[in-house]
Specification:
The protein is α+β, with helices and mostly antiparallel strands and 98 residues long. The chain has 1 helix and 7 strands; from the N terminus they run E-E-E-E-E-E-E-H.
């Protein structure tokens, strides 16, 4: 059963714990079933590739790995916040007219 996350793709987030604590980044992808998010430039790990015929030497690739959603917080000023503020302003304006 999918779980609703407090962040979504495109949101700017602040990392609350771990090696990258205090850094900010943009959510590239969200995994609601695992309650994880992939954040640009955060939680970088080395992936070792075996030697192949096309690449006989092999290689090491540094890539992002998902972070648990509880370890990130959405930062103010994202597009989602602006939309919700506009909706709230519209609602309050329409309720004042009534």
């Amino acid at each position: 059963m999918p779980v609703k996350l407090h962040v979504k793709k495109g949101d700017t987030v602040l990392v609350l714990s771990g090696n990258d604590k205090g850094k900010t980044g943009v959510v590239k992808e969200a995994f609601p079933r695992e309650s994880k998010v992939l954040v640009e430039g955060i939680n970088m790990r080395w992936k070792h590739k075996k030697p192949t015929q096309q690449n006989p030497k092999g290689e090491r690739i540094e890539r992002e790995t998902p972070v648990h959603a509880s370890n990130v917080k959405r930062v103010e000023g994202t597009a989602a916040d602006k939309k919700s503020k506009k909706k709230a302003a519209k609602k309050s304006a329409s309720s004042e007219k009534s």
